[in-house]
TrEMBL record:
PANTHER family: OLIGOPEPTIDE-BINDING PROTEIN APPA (PTHR30290:SF9), PERIPLASMIC BINDING COMPONENT OF ABC TRANSPORTER (PTHR30290). Residues 78-429 form the Solute-binding protein family domain. The lineage of its organism: Bacteria, Pseudomonadati, Pseudomonadota, Alphaproteobacteria, Rhodospirillales. InterPro entries: Peptide/Ni-bd, SBP_5, SBP_5_dom. SUPFAM superfamilies: Periplasmic binding protein-like II. Gene3D superfamilies: Dipeptide-binding Protein, Domain 1 (3.90.76.10), Dipeptide-binding Protein, Domain 3 (3.10.105.10), Periplasmic binding protein-like II (3.40.190.10). This is ABC transporter substrate-binding protein. It is found in: Periplasm. Residues 1-27 form the signal peptide.
Length: 515
């Protein structure tokens, strides 16, 4: 019934050489054991894969849980994970996925087709955070004890990428149903690690899953490490100081004003990796004054991005021309909104701004975003606006954004897959469950164009459609884009195979310590 035009064979080699790191370790080189300590600016809020949209949770989940298909060593491509192979019918309406034999959950129970169906039905629920990514799916069915069938309502060009989402991870059905809340604290999945302890606001401790299926270059089960401690360290300088003092093996999100200093540290390397990330100012279209496009355009014209690139980013990155990161179908044909204070003043006057102060929110301890907010405040005030900078811890600030309890918020977004559809849908489709990623943006033309792009298989046509969406949404002043920022992290040279992939996380299963 199914042809072989998109068969992915299990014989695909899963290399431990990680993208830009290009470290082809031999069995003789690798050392097992030890504890890796990583300082992160984001806090994990949950380990339940179906609901979160914060990177603090997502990046941890990807170390613990696994989807059928997963991002490869660079993040730009895909490779088999819990599905060892799959086939698609010629009309693109039927997919059969063959589960990898012998895989067990961290509690020793075998992975079953029933677990896969349960998990995919959870993520595909229209009310779920990522239900939109599976809107084209008609049904998930069991063919036999090792085969899952996905039947589509219509062709969907992004299915394979959607199945690589963290939210499409396969969980133990029995353990999840027993106590969903407890599962969010200690999930039962098939990934390289499991949660040993979780102290909210402090740290997460991961230990190896004794039943993990992937093998290292030495022929033994991954991971190489005995333990990983992921510390929540929101203050940038504290992460760098901890790296310098040896308290942390890895410091994520190095302050760019200290990047050269970190690079010069003895025994430390600076990682600068391509990303699917955009730093930008969320604007709430559902609250005054940003319910008026003229006001949204005004704050864009009054954003001195040259000053921000120098003072905040120290030359790292690129000024954006889009509302979302540079993923597959980014277009360079969309003209950037220039810095023009006089134009901003005219728009503020035309909009009839009443002088009510605008609250510009930033995360406590995020010095770069605080500096960006200060520069934005100066420009917006020159345009005739009153602006107050307010600070909250990152968890509180993001929760406020989710609830729509904000006006403007300096933050960022990253893509979890290598296809534009995820973020284009999350950010620009106002019919989705996140209200266009908490912006309350709505544009019927954009919603229609996105629907077309999901069904078109031709890459050139998809690029054309996403280019149109980029132009419309960007010039609707969806947000105030600031920078296409690469990942800039510091790590001790004893840490081997460290690499941040374009979708933002790191495969800790492949990391080892040379000591």
């Amino acid at each position: 019934m199914l042809d072989k035009r998109r068969l992915i064979f299990a014989a695909l080699v899963l290399s431990t050489a990680l993208g830009g790191a290009s470290i082809a370790a031999s069995a003789e080189d690798v050392k097992r054991g030890g504890t890796l300590t990583v300082a992160r600016p984001e806090e994990a809020l949950t380990f339940e894969p179906f609901t979160p949209s914060d990177n603090g949770s997502i990046y941890n989940i990807m170390q613990i849980c696994e989807p059928l298909i997963v991002a490869d060593a660079t993040g730009k491509g895909l490779e088999p994970s819990l599905a060892e192979s799959w086939t698609a019918s010629a009309d693109g309406l039927t997919y059969d996925f063959k589960l990898r034999p012998g895989v067990r959950f961290s509690n020793g129970k075998p992975l079953t087709v029933e677990d896969a169906i349960f998990s995919l039905q959870k993520v595909a629920d229209p009310k779920a955070s990522f239900g939109f990514a599976f809107d084209a799916v008609k049904a998930f069915d069991k063919v036999d004890d090792s085969t899952l069938r996905i039947t589509m309502k219509r062709p969907y060009a992004t299915l394979e990428s959607a199945l690589s989402l963290f939210a499409a991870s396969i969980v133990s059905k029995a353990d999840y149903e027993k106590d969903p809340a407890a599962f969010g604290q200690k999930p039962v999945c098939t990934g390289a690690f499991q949660v040993e302890s979780y102290e909210r606001g402090t740290q997460v401790v991961l230990v190896p899953n004794p039943n993990y299926w992937r093998k290292g270059v030495d022929g033994k089960p991954l991971p190489y490490l005995d333990k990983v401690v992921l510390k929540y360290v929101p203050e940038s300088n504290s992460r760098v100081l901890g790296l310098q003092n040896g308290d942390f093996d890895v410091a994520l999100v190095v302050p760019l004003n200290q990047a050269n200093s970190v690079k010069a540290m003895d025994g430390v390397s600076l990682e600068v990796s391509p990303s699917y990330r955009l730093d930008y100012v969320f604007l709430n279209h559902g609250k005054k004054p940003f319910d008026d496009k003229r006001m949204r355009m005004a704050v864009n014209y009054a954003a001195n991005r040259d000053a921000i690139m120098k003072a905040v980013y120290f030359g790292f990155g690129e000024q954006p021309n889009s509302y979302m990161p540079k993923v597959n179908f980014w277009s360079d044909k969309v003209a950037k909104i220039p810095y023009d204070i006089e134009k901003a003043k005219a728009l503020v006057k035309e909009a009839g701004y009443d002088g009510t102060p605008i609250q510009l929110m930033v995360d406590t301890g995020n010095a770069p975003f605080r500096t960006a907010a200060t520069i934005l405040q100066q420009g917006w005030q020159q345009a005739g606006l009153k602006v107050e900078i307010v600070e909250y811890d990152s968890g509180t600030a993001f929760s406020m954004a989710q609830k729509g309890e904000y006006q403007a918020y300096v933050s960022y977004i990253t893509s979890d897959i290598n296809d534009d559809d995820e973020l284009a849908s999350i950010q620009a489709d106002g019919t989705g469950p996140t209200a266009a990623f908490f912006s309350n943006y709505k544009n019927e033309e954009v919603t229609k164009l996105l629907a077309q792009a999901r069904e078109v298989g031709d890459k050139a046509k998809r690029a054309e459609l996403y280019g149109k969406v980029q132009d419309i949404v960007y010039n609707d002043a969806y947000s105030v884009p600031l920078n296409f920022l690469p990942y800039v992290n510091g790590y001790n040279n004893k840490v081997k195979n460290w690499h941040t992939i374009t979708v933002g996380w790191w495969w800790l299963r492949d990391v080892w310590l040379d000591k």
